[in-house]
Design brief:
With 135 residues, the protein is an alpha/beta fold. The protein has 5 helices and 5 strands.
Length: 135
């Protein structure tokens, strides 16, 4: 049986973290949790996850700064990162994509479609890894 895919969720709000973890766990996806940039860096050190869900408003180093840091690491440049954020004003999605994110999910999350959105991002990442072009 193949190993489950792993997602690093970087989120400082405990309720949001628990909800995301529950939904992903129910879908058979392994979840690594980080509540700030320092914890995220530690988890990214050994073996990268298949995808990162990144809150943009973190204590200390904000999410967009952490995305830039990840993108500057040659071993992590292709790691898919999805912004998971309450920033939902006009232009926010574009700003986060321009800042290095591969996608965007607004909070509060839509429980009915969240797992599907994440699985779609995982599929796009698999396609890129296997040389299937950009998805």
């Amino acid at each position: 049986m193949p190993e489950p895919e792993t997602i690093l969720v970087v989120e400082d709000n405990e309720q949001n973290l628990e909800l995301v973890e529950f939904l992903l766990d129910e879908a058979g996806i392994r979840v690594w949790k980080a509540r700030d940039a320092e914890e995220a860096r530690a988890l990214l050190g050994d073996r990268p996850p298949d995808l990162v869900l990144m809150d943009m408003q973190l204590p200390g180093t904000d999410g967009l700064s952490l995305v830039a840091e990840i993108r500057s690491n040659p071993a992590l440049t292709s790691l898919p990162i999805i912004a998971l954020t309450a920033h939902a004003m006009r232009g926010d999605r574009e700003r986060f994509i321009a800042g290095g994110c591969d996608g965007y999910i607004a909070k509060p999350i839509n429980v009915a479609s969240f797992v599907e959105e994440v699985q779609s991002a995982l599929q796009a990442a698999r396609t890129r890894r296997l040389g299937g072009g950009s998805a």
